[in-house]
Every structure is written in C-alpha cells, then in structure tokens.
Amino acid sequence: MKESRLQANIIQWLNALPETKAINLHGNQYTESGTPDILCVRNGRVYFFEVKTPAGRVSRIQEHRIAQWRTAGATAQVVRSLKEVKEILGEQSSEDE
Fold first, then answer.
1. Is 87 a domain residue?
2. 42, 20 in Cβ contact below 8 A?
3. Partner residues linked to 50 by β-bridges
4. Which residue from 7, 80, 85, 97 puts its CA 20 to 30 A from 36's CA?
C-alpha cells in the first residue's frame, strides 16, 4: 500500500471516532521540515503520526521533530499500519489481530 493511501485510511478511521479530529499536515513553505504527517486530537490529547510504509525510512529531521513534540507533551510516533495507530490509542479489537 502506498504511504498516501495508508495516511488517508488512518485519517478516515480517526475521524470516525467520537471526540476526535485528525488532519493531514501537508508539507509546504509554511510547515517545518520533518513535521509529522497527521495531527490528531482526541479527548483533549494531542497525537502526531509520521506514516511510513513497512520499508519506509524515517529521516533525521523527522526523528528530531517527533522528539520535539514528545518534549512538549504530545504523543508522537512513527506508524506503519492502522493497527499501530489503534494500539497507540488503546482501540485494539479482536478483529484486528
């Protein structure tokens, strides 16, 4: 699956959850290099997800931005599947196993 399709699937799933809003943070001249792909707020908690395919590599600047968000109190993580996002949010179900 392409990274863009995986991002879209994750955002669609997140936005179907109650008290949750997620958006894709498209990189452009107004965003910092290495900013994670997805911003999600759920029940007042902030999550950033850097989406990669199983073979995708995380750059040094992406690792740095993830560390900055963690230091600021957000949950920031590299994810390679919707299942990983569900695990981070504690939404794992038996059908996902």
1. yes
2. yes
3. 78
4. 97
| Domain region containing 87 | 3-91
Identify the H or E element spanning 51. Answer: strand 45-51
Residue 22: count of CB within 10 angstroms of its CB: 21
Give the chain's domain count: 1
Residue 97: which pLDDT band, with cuts at 50, 70 and 90?
very low
CATH number where 11 lies: 3.40.1350.10
Q: Is 97 contained in some domain?
A: no
Determine what percent of the chain is predicted with pLDDT higher than 70.
Answer: 94
pLDDT tens column, 26-66: 888 888 999 999 999 999 999 999 999 999 999 999 999 99
Q: Which of 95, 73, 71, 88 is nearest to 10 (CA)?
A: 88
| Beta carbons within 8 Å of 93's beta carbon, 6+ residues apart | 86
